């Protein structure tokens, strides 16, 4: 059926569809986010469950359960590491008045290298009660101590614990959905292919699209985890050598935040710089200066993440995650707006799956190439003889009667070539 839609109408309908899908994803986030996480985890755990089932002769149910329990154990290790690092950081805060004064003077001395401040400045001046007993403590001391009191820190930990408990039920839901996807994954995949009818060509495209989506997601999550652990090891060792006070916490942070492309990497690089500027003691620092330590950290961090982004990641992930930077950043903005923090972590796998679909759907390949980082791919035209015949027919039609409009009838065996005398389309006025 030819609806004779104008270009503006088609664009409007497409925009309405995009806005409708976005609204549905936003409003149904409590449903869609656990499902998407479960699909991603199932795609990663399926090879492990299959290996346990085939090589160790374990029943399929227990193979899936073992793979899932292994994932839970890995997450508990990560949570345990943060549980160990955060209290250790809090305990390391100054406990006595003299310790607070010494810590403040170290911070003031380090920052004075960047922003010169007079010793008698009322907000951020140097504080030495033995030398200046009549001088009031700088306002910065009381401000920092007010925010870092034991009550404030305890309140923050309580709020964090409540937030974790609120999301605990979602984590349990994700585990159950993942288990059932592992148990029935092959059956569900066969039923999805059956929806598209008996056509062998269409089923082949669907099968290839599903396989490519799964491979892209699995490759990204597995290798991203390995690369993140490598980043944490290398950067954590450098932080420890340079004398950062909380080097272990920043190493864990880079391992987690690097799942968010670009944005997470930048965010993970800021705390070590602040740590170097505020807490590094110049008398014990290997480089002899807090400012020099911060500068070296910024250079080293930039070199490491650049090498990781341009050499390691393309080498280990190949073309399965071949997405250009513009697509990745726009995807992060979009999915963060729709699903919040969870959307940032899911942006890359979702875009990889979307690209795999576009590359297998007839007429959508251009969008798939648009998301990739490779060179531009021109649309394939008909062969030279057919194209020449089509252009000749258009020329003849215009020469014989300028009022005639060339149309293409897909039911006639012309291979797209127009004929002189074809009737006008109803979409154009006489």
Automatic annotation (TrEMBL):
Keywords: Cell membrane, Membrane, Transmembrane, Transmembrane helix, Transport
UniProt subcellular location: Cell membrane
Residue ranges of the region described as Disordered: 402-430
GO cellular component: plasma membrane
InterPro entries in the record: AI-2E-like
One Pfam family, short name: AI-2E_transport
Topology in membrane: Multi-pass membrane protein
Entry's transmembrane regions: 7-25, 60-86, 167-183, 221-241, 247-270, 291-313, 333-354
UniProt key word Transmembrane: yes
Family membership noted in the UniProt record: Belongs to the autoinducer-2 exporter (AI-2E) (TC 2.A.86) family.
Protein name: AI-2E family transporter
């Amino acid at each position: 059926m030819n609806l004779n839609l104008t270009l503006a109408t088609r664009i409007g309908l497409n925009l309405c569809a995009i806005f409708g899908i976005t609204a549905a994803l936003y409003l149904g986030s409590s449903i869609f986010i656990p499902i998407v996480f479960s699909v991603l985890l199932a795609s990663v755990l399926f090879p492990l469950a299959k290996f346990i089932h085939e090589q160790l002769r374990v029943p399929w149910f227990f193979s899936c359960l073992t793979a899932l329990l292994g994932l839970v154990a890995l997450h508990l290790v990560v949570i345990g590491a943060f549980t160990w690092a955060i209290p250790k950081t809090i305990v390391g805060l100054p406990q006595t008045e003299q310790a607070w004064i010494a810590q403040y003077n170290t911070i003031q001395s380090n920052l004075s290298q960047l922003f010169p401040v007079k010793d008698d400045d009322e907000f951020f001046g140097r504080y030495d009660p033995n030398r200046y007993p009549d001088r009031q403590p700088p306002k910065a001391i009381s401000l920092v101590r007010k925010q870092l009191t034991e009550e404030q820190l305890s309140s923050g930990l309580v709020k964090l614990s409540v937030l974790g408990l609120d999301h605990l039920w979602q984590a349990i839901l994700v585990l159950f959905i993942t288990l059932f996807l592992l148990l029935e994954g092959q059956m569900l995949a066969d039923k999805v292919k059956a929806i598209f009818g008996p056509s062998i060509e269409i089923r082949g495209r669907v099968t290839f699209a599903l396989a490519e989506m799964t491979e892209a997601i699995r490759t990204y999550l597995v290798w991203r985890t390995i690369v993140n652990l490598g980043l944490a090891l290398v950067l954590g060792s450098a932080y420890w050598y340079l004398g950062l006070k909380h080097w272990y916490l920043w190493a864990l942070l880079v391992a987690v935040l690097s799942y968010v492309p670009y944005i997470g990497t930048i965010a993970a690089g800021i705390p070590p710089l602040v740590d170097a500027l505020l807490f590094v003691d110049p008398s014990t620092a290997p480089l002899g200066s807090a400012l020099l330590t911060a500068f070296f950290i910024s250079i080293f961090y930039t070199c490491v993440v650049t090498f990781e982004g341009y050499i390691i990641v393309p080498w280990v992930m190949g073309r399965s995650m071949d997405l250009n930077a513009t697509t990745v950043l726009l995807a992060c903005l979009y999915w963060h707006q729709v699903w919040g923090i969870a959307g940032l972590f899911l942006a890359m796998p979702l875009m990889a799956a979307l690209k795999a679909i576009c590359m297998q759907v007839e007429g959508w390949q251009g969008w798939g190439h648009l998301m990739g980082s490779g060179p531009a791919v021109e649309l394939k035209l008909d062969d030279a003889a057919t194209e020449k015949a089509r252009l000749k027919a258009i020329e003849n039609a215009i020469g014989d009667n300028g009022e005639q409009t060339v149309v293409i009838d897909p039911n006639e065996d012309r291979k797209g070539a127009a004929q002189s005398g074809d009737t006008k389309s109803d979409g154009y006025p006489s």
